[in-house]
Amino acid sequence: MPEPTITEADIEAAERLMGIAYTARERAQMVGNLSGQIGSAVERRKVDLPNSVPMSLRFDPRLPGFVMPTADGVTGSKPDAPLPDDDTDIAFATLPQLGGWIASGALTSRRLTEIYLDRIARLNPQLYCYAQVTPDLALAEADAMDRLTAEGKTLGPLHGIPYGLKDLFDTRGIVTGWGAEPYQHRVPDGDARIVTLLRQAGAVLLGKTTVGALAYNDIWYGGVTRNPWNTEEGSSGSSAGSASATAAGLCAFSIGTETLGSITSPSQRCGTTGLRPTFGRVSRAGGMALCWSLDKVGPICRGVEDTALVLAALNGADVDDRCTIAAPFAFDAGKGIEGLKLGYLPEAFGEGATEVDHAALAAAKALGIEVVEVSLPDLPYGALMNTLYAEAAAAFEHLTLGDLDDTLTWQDDGAWPNTFRKARFLSAVDHVQLDRLRYLVMQALDGLFRDIDVLIGPFMTGPMLVASNYTGHPCLHLRAGFQQLGTRSPASLGEGKLTTGEADTGGKTHRVPQGISLWGRLFDEGTILSLGLALEAKLGVAAERPPLTA
């Protein structure tokens, strides 16, 4: 079949999709030589590009003059509380507590693993937070850790501690379905790099936690992952199962990923503590790629110190992830916060801010550190979202062009299928300009953190959710308090920005958690963790458990 002839009317119609306007003379000039440009694109589409093939260009968050911190090493706390009699109290214990009990012989990894497997069996049918549970593997790994313990050997703070892994990461011989119907029977023949690292650290894999299809939202091919504080609503996404399982005590910790809110958003919804590390700190090899220049891997836990212990096990450059950067990681649970300078954007605590937000800022001021108002340059931060749409559409081009996108459950206007289709009309020239805008945003945040050590604010603080994800700056999100809210709606990317549906939609209300975010300098997670630890203690709300799990 011959290629259709391009007319000047076609060009004029296309202009409206691109937000531009040419003259009749300009259309006449280009109408005869567009076929080569189109033909090149068609030829390229014939080349199979699996999800594992990266971009040749690499994002590096470091601006000229950046100096890498030199401090290295993690020093955790050493709690001396006795082992509780109640299994639920054990299930919700902190990682330092669990590690101490295992090291002393008061608790075996097998018993702890059995506690979590039992809780998964009872509560997962209500929460839909595990896509795959691997009891035989978990018990075998636990027994191996107990043998090492008996020999007086330990692999570190995570020795013998069970965790849940977001179902974006390959696990040899175990279904890794990415939450999406086209991949629900996908069985990889190797392990992702972080799976190997966690095994080397002694952690025990309980199973694969659910992920919103292709790393967005909380809807996957098995249903909707639930918030344990209100099972009538979803847990937000895309690390939906990781946050839900951790909040409900169905694992000691979990692994999440964030492209734009996928660690911090479900942590906001479920009341967990999520740490999104600096871009490039943790390898993504063996994980599903959504956006090569944005994807990040981090822990979801029930406390601040826990996230530090997990990040220490994950940290490190990897030749199989071209974007990783060798960087030290330092955290000392006993380090004070004297001399820190904390900033906040005043508009973030204005109209729309909740009592929890204001209480969190007041608690931070009561810590005795300097707290100052700051500002950011007036830039179109939200425009950067088109980069996400383009990279994601490229990562799953075959779904769009092969009509496999129709098999995904979520088909709303803001869902991936429609977003991928619209992305085909984004301009390549505009994307080059967006990359240059991204550089200006990198300079803006670099300037911000030259004046302060940490920025505090609500999850949706001004442009920070978008801006900091695009610049690669780390973010710690921790529970700050509770609100009475009705069931909240799912997230949407349909308006060109991420919204988490936090608005009260009416009806019966539930007491649900709300968090606060701390942003810090590149590769300086230790500072936001130290402040987060102090703030966590001051707020005193981290230990409360969802009523479902009692």
Question: What class, by secondary structure content?
Answer: alpha/beta
Mean model confidence by pLDDT: 95
Ranges where pLDDT stays below 50 over 5 or more residues in a row are 491-501
Briefly, what CATH class?
Alpha Beta
Which sheet architecture does the biggest sheet show? 11 strands, mixed
CATH topology: Amidase signature (AS) enzymes
**Which overall shape is indicated by the principal axes computed on the Cα atoms?**
globular
Q: Distance between termini? A: 66 Å
Radius of gyration from CA coordinates: 24 Å
Question: Which CATH architecture?
Answer: Alpha-Beta Complex
- Widest sheet, order of strands: 2-4-3-9-11-10-16-17-15-13-14
Strand content: 5-15%
**Secondary structure: number of strands:** 17
DSSP helix fraction: 25-40%
What is the count of structural domains?
A: 1
Number of contiguous helices: 18
Looking at CATH, the homologous superfamily is Amidase signature (AS) domain
Domain Amidase: 112-464
Pfam family, one: Amidase
Region (Disordered): 489-509
Protein name: Amidase
